[in-house]
Fold:
Amino acid sequence: MSNYLRNIFFVIGLVAIVVMLLTFEVSFVQLWKDICKAGYWLVAMLALWGVLYAMNALTWRVIIKGSGDCNISFLKLTKITITGFALNYATPVGLLGGEPYKIMELKPYIGLQRASSSVLLFAMMHIFSHFWFWVTSIVVYVLMYLLGNLPMGVGMVVVLLMMSLFCGAGIYLFIRGYKKGMVVKLIKMLSHVPGMKKWSVKFESEHQEDLRKIDLQISALQSQNKKNFYCSFFLEYFGRIFQSFEIMFMLILFEAGSADIITFTYSFLILAFTSLFANLLFFFPLQLGGREGGFALSTAQMGMTNDIGMFVSMMCRVREIFWASVGLLLMKVGTTVNCKQENINDKDNADEK
Structure:
């Protein structure tokens, strides 16, 4: 990627982080008190996400190796992963920031087509695992209700039914996408969006063969490389479950629970309901408002006070800003590509054509 494009991504991310810092719903004095209260638990949260990003990079590496050799080091892949997520957090409609960046950074190592298909496959797997994570949360909530640990009013029944329909539809669409590819269909769908028809028709006509090859690579992961498919899926799925420890740390700190399976289950459900609510508002940069509202609603459903929901949401927001800042800084580190690798990529690009 050229330094000019890299600087554009850097400025976009920097502006978004500054906006986020200036729009906290609590004063900086209160925020500092919360940070001090979190203490070493906040350090644990930050470290936990270091592990999660490494798991994301490993998922991406498995997907890349499903279509051939992976000529990029795991360390550099992790760096690009962290920066990509930082841009996704910082830009409206998320994927408009991080995914193009990852494609351009990966292109010199494995070629444009494989870079595009692997980034799209990773994004698909990330979302696909979320749907199964939410399905699991529905089952867990019902079990907790049957055990007498959680309430089940009419409103919650409606919410769970709507979640079931939403997740079922999402899983169905993704399974079809994995079998037949979905890039060409997405471009065709854009032609129905006001103002996008002319661009999408032109783009499809100019890149029809490339889009077809990307769709073939997407379908090949599920049909020909089942080991890579299921390995990448379980890495992402268990990563979502592992993330529940972040909420658990805060509940223990707030003395709203202890280090036991019940507290972890509450943490799991809070994360599931909050992430679903926040992802429905994906068009907001850093999911402003959606994350906080999700924490408030989900903690209240678990019988906890609003103070707990606000505290957990603020600490998660601090963690997001920390890793978004790290991601932007990493954008300026290790940007050179080995000359030998560039020659290999040139040969791969020639073979693709």
Confidence is low (pLDDT under 50) at residues 346-353. Residues 112-146 form the longest helix (35 residues). The two ends are 20 Å apart (CA to CA).
